[in-house]
Write a structure and sequence with these properties.
single chain, mainly alpha, Growth Hormone, Chain: A, 18 helices
């Protein structure tokens, strides 16, 4: 039997942990229309497999953060990855939409991989170094979610939508083994009791700076989730793409995200975290505004539309590592709780934006309204970034 890990995880393990959560979210998205037809429900209801999943992951992160501060990152990851694997089997076998949705919600346990890998990085590095490391990790891991929708669309064309969930089963098994052999415990100062750790949330919620970081995260990722929730509808109405082509188009935003993280890995030690957050938000807003201007002049094409969305990815690549490290640096001893709470607010915001997008978009208004929703969310993120910047200028940074 393979021996249990005793040393901190290698970079490749952190990259795969950070990747698996978003890959689980976006790989099956090109299949949404086919899933709706197969289950005999409308598109808005199938969209609950995104919005409801995000809501569940938001709740789970609130609990996982303090649990990992008390019991360690490793045991929580092993437990959650086992649950994810079992839930993936349930999704693959489901013949009824509500049965599928139940198991889909249980798949939300995989969010522990993303949230606790961030906490592990903060355990291992200083704040400025952690921002650069997260940028590097996310830059490399973005290859998987960038290719995920295309791969999922291809699987759908060849084998049907259930094939993506068969891949999730294999992914869960593989990640469980990897955590066992290469994820030694990084939390060297566990809290005394779970309840005591859970009671630290008011300390975080009472921090204006924490709220600035968390809201910037929520609105930045909200634009991304809005795109995931509406791209299939807009594509079908405007561009008549196959599921494989749609998958590649949806992966474009992640390509921008990889480039943004490349910039972050180079700039992390040269600029303040709040400055990087602002640069990222301005980039996202500028790209989306350009896309809307094209639509105003009746220029509607695959390259102009998805090209505008790429700037959201670039902006998020600059913003998210800075926000994440900043939130965990407000109270460094509460890194797990901060990662869980900020992650919950981020994913909760994503769930709200996905739900709004799914309910408001129609084939007639989808093209312009999707970009408008994304722009509004990105602009609110910009306001939150400026708020953090003002606090830094008045009180000094915490890192």
């Amino acid at each position: 039997m393979l021996g249990a890990a005793r040393t901190p995880p290698r970079m490749i393990t952190l990259i795969l942990l950070a990747s698996v959560g978003i890959l689980t979210l976006n790989m099956f998205l090109p299949s949404l229309n086919h899933m709706a037809a197969d289950f005999g429900v409308d598109y808005g209801l199938v969209n609950l497999s995104i919005a409801g999943y995000l809501a569940i992951t938001a709740v789970l992160q609130v609990i996982m953060g303090p649990l990992s501060d008390r019991y360690g990152r490793r045991p929580i990851l092993l437990m959650c990855m086992g649950l994810f694997t079992a839930a993936s089997v349930g999704c693959f076998l489901a013949e009824n939409f509500w049965v599928f949705l139940t198991f889909r919600m249980l798949q939300g346990a995989v969010i522990s991989a993303t949230a606790l890998s961030r906490a592990a990085v903060r355990d291992m590095f200083s704040a400025q170094d952690a921002a650069g490391v997260l940028g590097t990790i996310t830059m490399v891991m973005a290859v998987a979610p960038m290719l995920g929708p295309g791969f999922g669309g291809l699987l759908d064309q060849v084998f049907g939508w259930r094939a993506s969930f068969a891949v999730f089963v294999l992914m869960g098994i593989g990640m469980t083994v990897l955590i066992w052999v290469d994820m030694g415990e990084t939390n060297q100062n566990p809290s005394e009791t779970f309840l005591k750790q859970f009671r630290t949330y008011p300390e975080l919620l009472g921090s204006r700076r924490f709220w600035g970081y968390a809201l910037c995260l929520a609105f930045s990722v909200g634009a991304f989730y809005s795109f995931l929730g509406g791209a299939a509808l807009v594509s079908g109405a405007e561009f008549d793409l196959t599921t494989a082509e749609l998958g590649l188009g949806m992966g474009s935003i992640t390509g921008g995200f990889a480039f943004g993280n490349f910039l972050m890995s180079r700039l992390a030690k040269r600029a303040a975290l709040s400055t990087l957050m602002i640069w990222g938000r301005v980039t996202a807003c500028a790209g989306l505004a350009g896309g809307l201007i094209f639509l105003m002049f009746d220029v509607v094409g695959v390259y102009t539309y998805f090209g505008a969305v790429i700037f959201v990815g670039i902006g998020n690549g600059l913003t998210l590592p800075a926000c994440t490290v900043g939130a965990m640096s407000v109270r460094p001893k509460l890194a797990g709780s901060a990662a869980g709470l900020s992650g919950a607010l981020m994913v909760g915001g994503g769930a709200v934006m996905t739900s709004i997008t799914g309910n408001l978009l129609t084939p007639q208004n989808g093209a312009w309204l999707l970009l408008a929703i994304m722009l509004a969310s990105s602009f609110l993120g910009l306001l939150a970034a400026y708020y953090v910047r003002r606090i830094d200028l008045r009180e000094g940074p915490t890192y």
